[in-house]
Structure formats: C-alpha cells, structure tokens
Amino acid sequence: MIIRGIVFDKDGTLFQYAGTWAHWCDSVLDRLSADDGVLKARLAATVGFDMATGDFLPGSLIVGGSAGEVNEAWATHLPDWSVDRIDAVAVEALATLPTLPVCDLPVLFSELTARGIRLGIATNDYEASAKMQLKDAGIAGFFSFVCGFDSGYGAKPGPGMIDGFCAATGLPAAEVAMVGDSIHDLGAGRAAQVGMNVGVLTGPAGREDIAHMADHILADIGALPGLLDRLAWNRAAAAGSRPSRPGDLADGRTPHEDPGVQAATRYHETGTGLPVRQFGPARFRLFSG
Predict the structure, then answer these.
(1) What number of CA atoms fall less than 13 Å from residue 277's CA on the CB side?
(2) Interhelix angle for 67-75 vs 83-93, to 10°?
(3) Which of 178, 185, 218, 186 is nearest to 200 (CA)?
(4) How confident is the model over 24-75, as pLDDT tens digits?
C-alpha cells in the first residue's frame, strides 16, 4: 500500500479544538440567549458544551455533528428563531474564530506535497469557514480539495467527502489516508474504504475513544512524515531490499550528516509506540513534543 493522498479533518486535527470552538460557541450562545442565563445553559447542554470549563463533553454534537445539525438542535429551544436565522448568527461568529495550529503547518504540508502527496480537507464545518481558516493560516495553496457539510457531499461519518476527494484527484480510495481526531472522521474513512485510517490525539477524544477505528494513532499530524517513512521502510524490507533506516534522507545520508540539521535529535512517543525524530531548526520541526 502506497499513500498518494491524505484527507484531513480540520478542527482538532489541523487546529486546536477547544481554543477555537469554545470561543465560537460561547459567542453564539450569548447572541442566541440574549442574556437569559437559564436559556444559555439549556442551549449549551443541548450541544454538549460545559460553560464552566469551556470543554466539550463526550458525545458533544459540536464535536461530532455538522453545523446544520447543531443549528437544528438549538432551534428546538428557540421557537421564535428560524434555523436560517440561527445559522446567520453562527456564521457571523466565524469571523472572529481564532486560528490555533497544532504544529508548524506550512512546514508539514510543504514536506508532504514535496513527496507528491495530494492533500484534501473534509470538515463538518461550513466550506467557506474552512477555506477562510486555511487562508488565515497560510496553507490554503497546499490543498487540492476542500469541502464542508454544505458542499454537496454529505457529512462525516458518511463516505461522500472522501469519495469527492478521490474523484477530484483521480486517486483510488486504497491509496488515500484519512486523518482525524474523532470516530466521525475515522468512520468516514472506513465507509470510503481508504487505505489507512490515522487518528490523532489533538482533539477532545482520547486514545481509547478512537483506537478501534484507527490503523495508527499519532500524538499530532506533525508525526505523519515519520509514519510514512516507517511504512516505506517496512515495504522495502518485506520486498527483500536493503532500505535505509526510517528518517534517512533521500540521498542516503542520515539527518546528522546533513549540514542543515542540528546534531541534537530527540525522540517522543507518537502513540504508535515507535520513536519519531524531532529536529532542531524550524524548517525541520515536523513533530511536536
């Protein structure tokens, strides 16, 4: 199996979840409740948001559902509000959404695209919001395909978004990896029969929540190049060749033999139980500690 395309979830995978969406949720709840504390608490509970801690509870609709499903849930407590009016408030609040990346995204995506890997985004957020965040983070140009729940492909955990990426890139699902922080992301990967499901631990879910759906679990997406290197090494070893060690450079040198890489190399656990190198200079800092 060779991975030639990667579809990423957005929130909790590229960007820190709580720091992004707790701010948004609190802002929207203030608007919808109009200073009615009891109503605000009811609306928060409906979508699994703990106002006291700013955390999203297990099974939170905001974490697992689409933006449309969240709006419809709030509408059940707001008889004087249409879903469209709630949606307008939710969309307006997106303008102040902070962008908090989980790692150095431009460096990571430069590395992946340099390998010839096509990249896509599949989010249960609005497509316009996703594109705005990618632009703000300076990474929009790396993606061949971006879709949200409102793009016409359905929502995760359905297979439609990944099917759309495959159609747009011409890649078979068997050569695509799905990367996400929730069972909805990984469920979409299973439904689309991707070649590899990769879970990350930068969202609300814990390892135990996603382990049954993931082929690999990483601390964050910064560990992806190391995972791909190890898989390539394993394929070469299985074929009987004499591969370089995982992490060696394309010309056969080790990282320490490259003058652009500092001599100090440290390791951290990625969740697969295998060490991944983290290099000193910013342009090589692909893995978070």
Answers:
(1) 22
(2) 130
(3) 218
(4) 899 999 999 998 999 999 999 999 999 999 888 878 888 878 888 999 999 9
CA 56 and chain centroid, separation:
17
Peptide bond into 157 cis (omega under 30): yes
User: What whole-number distance in Å separates Cα of residue 21 and Cα of residue 246?
Assistant: 37
Place of tokens 């029969």: 193
Where are the domains positioned within the chain?
Answer: 5-15+101-284, 18-96
Read off the DSSP letter of residue 248: -
Vertex 93 angle, CA 91 and 95, to 5°: 90
Picking from 120, 110, 146, the residue whose alpha carbon sits closest to that of residue 225 is 110
What is the DSSP code (8-state) at residue 243? Answer: P
Biggest alpha carbon–alpha carbon distance for the chain: 69
Enter the pTM of the model: 0.75
Residues with Cβ within 8 Å of 35's Cβ and at least 6 positions away in sequence, in order, are none
Query: Helix (H, G, I), strand (E, B), or coil: what is residue 19?
Result: helix
**Alpha carbons 276 and 289: distance in angstroms, whole number:** 10
**At the topology level of CATH, where does 5-15+101-284 sit?**
Rossmann fold (3.40.50)
CA-based R_g, the chain, Å: 20
- Closest among 53, 57, 69, 141 to 105, alpha carbons compared: 141
- Residue position matching structure tokens 């394309």: 250
